[in-house]
Each structure stands twice: as structure tokens, then as C-alpha cells.
Amino acid sequence: MLDEALGKYDTTTVIRKLNLLGQWGLPDLVNTDTDVDGTGDPADPDGGDDPADPDPAALTAGKASPLAENPQAQPSFVLTEDSPDAAGTPTTSGATSRSVAAAEASIPTYLPCSFIVDAHPVRSVNVVEFHNASNSNGKWTYGESADTDLEGGIDYAGDDKGWSAHGSGHIGNSKGATVYRSYSGGSKANNYGTSTFKYTDGHYQGYGQGKWCQDTTISPGSYVKVPGSWYGGVGSNTADGSEFIGCAKSPQSGHRNEYPKGSGFTRDKNSSAKIGAAVNLGPIKVGARSGYSKNVVLHWDVVRGHGIWLCGTNYGPIDAGVIHAQNQP
Amino acid sequence: MRQLIHNRLAAVLVLTLCIFFGACDSKDGAGAGRGTGPVSFDSKDGGEQWAFVRAAKGQQVVFGALGVTNHGDEAATLTSAILTGPDDVVADEGARLATVLVRPVAAGADYVGAAVWPFKRYAEGAAPLEGYKLAPHATAELLYIVNVKEQGHWFWPRSEVRYTSGGKRYHDSTSTGFLVCPPGLDRSCDPPD
């Protein structure tokens, strides 16, 4: 409806939202179609085109995402001057508006893209948070059949400003090698144990005009950093979150086991807590979760003093994701 | 024909013993596996971990890292608890489970992971497990007391508890176990290969 007074189309009853991919979404008030993602599956309104969770396979291989099997059904709304969100758009006349709309509508939704590998950097990843008290000899081992779930990163805008954690890649260990770090002779430890992983850094280069790379939910110009394989090595760091909290104070004091001299505890297979900032991708830090399996061991052997406590923050050491240690008085 | 009669008699005898001693388990009774009854170990099953202690021949040791909780609304009666080896074979050649005690624990109480027994004041207030009434929503620490008959590496990867509740028998087991090693702090305490 043309608003004669304002000289432009009346859009006051139409609220459109610009999504992360620069698309205009349908107005919620009038949209009764449950297939809001345009995938043709009304039972899965979130499936297929969630820009915050694109298919990792599409990122690593640069191929079609199985979540975008019906690209023609993707919504394709163009920005017009009368849109309530188009604050900076020049407003002239309805005719101009229509011509702009027509021009933008001619831009195809998809375009062919190539995934360009920029580098294969090796990055240090926190695979475990480990605490040892000076009364015990402590050791963590990462190696054969160890598994780690690592997050990657993506920058949809390609401007190096909008990086976000992206997906989760499962990195198995087929090298048959083992690395470990031990703390003996009264050495304490409150740190993250690290190993290194090879990544693939790259970007999607588009050819021609279009909003997304063909059959994907990736916009051309997006940059990604994808975990690839375990590279080996061992190290540690004392980044935030690995500080000593011990077992003497609440809540850990309510979840502790006593281990006197001559005793100890070994965790051979369990699941550790997700480490919030496991790897620094440069623009952002993303997480990792390492599963303890054969040869991925946490070990405390109490050999001096009055023994130690082992504890967790919400559970005892038997179930805690991160086990803390402290000498007993 | 004589063989057939013998077989039938044997089957009847087995069934009778089974019923008499309560060793025949239905799906809702003992042997039904973890999680079917109201009492369970506080540790998750699936992960492999163990407490260990070094001990000389003739010593007693305790494994007390595990608690059990009655999640039901009526008391459960604990009947037995054992340490088991791989494939549920009890490995007690050189070390034998002497008894299992139950120690009521208040919220926030320490557990003894593993130690030479007796240890501190853990025996105080502890009662034999057999016949122990675990109140609804109560938690208790199980103290597995082991006699070390021969010096060596003795390893039980799993722990098990059996109990009755509401007239039915259940059991629960978990993959947290116990390892006994010879004395000597200069040697690592690891399970036998």
C-alpha cells in the first residue's frame, strides 16, 4: 500500500529482521509456514540454514552441505528502501525503490566457490587440566587411542573481526605414540597439559555474484580454522581457570577422598570437563574436551608427608571432570 | 531312560536350590544389571579407574572410595558386596576380601580412597554390610577390607553391591576398582599385565 503522505510504501505492519547472512527474514506475525528454514521440512524448522552452525564437513572439504539440499527453497528477500531496518538507504520514490529491488533481486542466491587453503599451522591445545600436590608424584599421559573433540573457528564476514567458535571436530590418535608429563620430587602442578594439533586455515573464494557458496550456508569470503590431526608434543601453561583451588575450602571440601602415604589413585578412562579456552586460534579461543582412554591416564602416587586430598568441585574425585589435589595438614 | 530321569532330577534339584537360596534371578531381581533398583554407586559406570595402596604380607588394607545412595522411598537392605576382576571372576589368590563395612556419611564427609587398615577413625560408626538398612535417600561409604595373604599385585577392576528393596533383590556394580601393590615407594604401583 502506497502511503501518499510519505511518498513511499507503507511497511508499518511488516517487521523484517536481517539475519547473520544479510538476508531478510519473513515477518513473524504473518508467517504461518512452519518450514521457516525453507528446507521443505516443516518438522525441522531449524534445520538446514542455521548460520551459526554450518556443517563442519562443508568447511573442511569445501563441498556441498547436506543441510542445504534444497537451495532453491532458501528465502531470498532483498533489501528495499522502505524496509524499517534500512536506515541508511536513500529514500526517493516508489519507482526508484522498485528498480533497486529488481536489481538486487537479480543477484543469484548461490555462486560457485573454491576453498583456498592458506596455511596448515600447528597449534598448542590444552588437552587436560591437571593438579598435583607436593606430597604426591603426579603424571598425566596423552597418547595411543586418545580422543579429543576440538572446536574450530569461523569468520563469516571475512573481516577478521567476527570470529566465533564453530562446530566440533573429533580428533582420534592413530599414531600409536604416547606423550606424558610427570611431576615428582615434590613438584606441584596447577596447569593445563598441552599437546599440539595440526589445523587447516583457509577461506572461501567466490566466483561471480551471489550470497552463499553453492549448496552451502557459507558466504564467500568466510575464513575458517579447522582442526585436523594430532601432531604430538607435550607442554603446559597456567592460563586462566587452571589456578590452584585445592580441597580445603568449600565446595571442594565436601567432595574429597583421603590418600595417605603409600596409596594413590589412577584414572584410566573417563571423560574430562570441557576446557573453556583450550586453544588460541588467534582471533578467538575455543574449547576442547579430551576423553581419557587407554594410555590417557591421570595418576597420583602419594610418596611423602601426611598424604593428600583429591577432590572435585561438584563431585568426588571418582566422578569429577577436573580433579584437584592438596596436601593434608 | 535312566539318563533322562537323572537329567530331570538334576533340573528339579537345581530349581529347588535356586528358589531356596534365591540365586535364580528374574529380570527385576539381582542380576538385572545396573540402574534397575533404587540403590546405586555414586560413581558412574564405564570409566576405568582405581584406588591403590602398597601393603606387606599379613597387613589389612581398605578401599573406601565408593559411596552408595538409596534413591528410593523405602529402606533397602544391603546383603553383600564384592570386588571383582575382569569377566566378574574374583581375583583373590594372594589377597582376599575379609569383610565390607558400611559407614554412614553426612554430606561433605571425607572418604578414604585407599589405606592400610585400620585408618584414622573410619572404623568408628561403621557396621557390617550384611543386613545393613540403608534409609531412603541416605548415602553410605562402603569400606572393603582386604587381607593381604601374599605380597604381590592384586587387582580388582570392578566393585559390586547387592541388596534387597521392596521384597526384590538387586545389585549394582561399577568400574571403579582397587589395586594392592608390594611395599616400596620407589616402585610405581600399576596393575599386573
Automatic annotation (TrEMBL), chain A:
Highest taxon listed in the record's lineage: Bacteria
**Region ranges (Disordered):** 26-98
Q: Where is the composition biased (Low complexity)?
A: 86-97
Please list the residue ranges that the record marks as compositionally biased, kind Acidic residues.
34-53
Name of the molecule in the record: Peptidase M23 domain-containing protein
From TrEMBL, chain B:
Signal sequence coordinates: 1-23
Q: Which domain of life is it from?
A: Bacteria
Which keywords has UniProt assigned to this entry? Answer: Signal
Gene source species: Nocardioides ginsengisoli
> What is the protein name given in its UniProt record?
Lipoprotein
Q: Which PROSITE patterns match?
A: PROKAR_LIPOPROTEIN
Specify whether Signal is a keyword of the entry. Answer: yes
